Amino acid sequence: MGISQPRKHTQFILRFITEPQPGPLFNYPANELKPSTIHTSREERAAIVDRFGSKLIDVVGEGQQNIFHSPLSIHEALTLAASGSAKTTLDAFVRVLELPKEKSSLNFQAFLTAVNQRENTIQVFKVSISLWLSSKLPKYEDFIDHSRFAFKAESEQLDFYDKDSVKKINECISENTHGKITQIVKELRHNQRLIIINTIYQSKLRGEVLINWYHK
User: Is residue 208 part of a domain?
Assistant: First the structure.
């Protein structure tokens, strides 16, 4: 199966989470930072992501023969962005992503813990997310703390003018994907303010399990 080239809609999604946008994108009061979970079951969350994926493919897949994308990855990345937004920006995220209106409820911790608890089973499945803020931005410590707590995100403010920042981001991605992806960022542009990267690592079925499955 072929993989289509990103079209303008896909590129907009990527730009939205990497370049400055008008309006209050980061506004997370400290008093809203509290332990909480999204009030949806795993089944409800799966249904929400499925609906989002269907709408997304209608937009980015128009006129394409083949396209490969991860609705879960995009939904989680945009939910993280939503947790640092406010007013009309937050309203748009809530509507499109079917999120709860309370930002303190934007919490993937329990979900990611459940999904990633497969290290000792027949197959390793790991979802990881990282948040990288330009050092040109003010210190959004509440937003960074929330991303670490609620999304288990690797979060840090970096000097986007420093070439070592590219190395640091790629090393994080390589670690999260067990060395399968070693470079996802080639350079950082000076007008970038925020990068959110989501990765999914899935190992092959372990030998004895694969043999048993084959004989069945």
Answer: yes
